[in-house]
Amino acid sequence: MSESPDRTPLPRSFFDRPVLEVAPDLLGRTLVRTTDEGRLELRLTEVEAYAGAIDPGSHAFRGRTARNAVMFGPPGHAYVYFTYGMWHCLNLVCGPEGEASGVLLRAGEILHGAALARPRRRSARKDAELAKGPARLATALDVPGSLDGTDVCAGPDAPLAVLTGTPPARSRIRTGPRTGVGGDGAAHPWRFWIAEDPTVSPYRPHTPRKRRLDPTKTEA
């Protein structure tokens, strides 16, 4: 028996496009995480695009490093990074190899495997909050740093995969500034989400960190 259309894995050609085409097209797709404990499936409801060398908000803006090397590789791979010394975040690399663009997966609705996610997200008051934010999404799905570089086009039984799912009507897609991005990249309307979906995270503008003053010193 053949797979239903919405269960078909997305091909690498889907990711081998400009990031501003891929990002909104990921909404409604099904992200599959296969673990030793079982399988989780999540409907993507919020994403952000990061455009490499032309985007001051991107990790790849200043060139290749050990941390962002996966972004410079072929499309259709996971870029997992550690942030604030506590959390991982999950991105999908897209665009031609070498251009280092990617899509941050910000939020989604867990369709299958919520029982596996709840123990990892004990602070969530309801299931709509299990993956409401990029760090929460990665935590709920148990996405460790070891998945950095995973090929999401390797098949539905790979550690990470993306299925066709059910994209929303274009009229339901909204766009605006990215959360927490400051500087020259702050105004880019490269955050995309499904309107009125309860799993979408709240927008928060960039807040510059205040320099801590040493009380033992005085200004000259």
From TrEMBL:
One of its GO terms (molecular function) is hydrolase activity, acting on glycosyl bonds. Its EC number is 3.2.2.-. It is an enzyme of class 3 (hydrolase). It holds the Pfam family Pur_DNA_glyco. Keywords: DNA damage, DNA repair, Glycosidase, Hydrolase. InterPro entries: Formyl_transferase-like_C_sf (IPR011034), MPG (IPR003180), MPG_sf (IPR036995). Residues 163-184, 198-220 are annotated as: Disordered. Belongs to the DNA glycosylase MPG family. HAMAP family: 3MGH. This is Putative 3-methyladenine DNA glycosylase. It comes from Streptomyces omiyaensis. The lineage of its organism: Bacteria, Bacillati, Actinomycetota, Actinomycetes, Kitasatosporales.
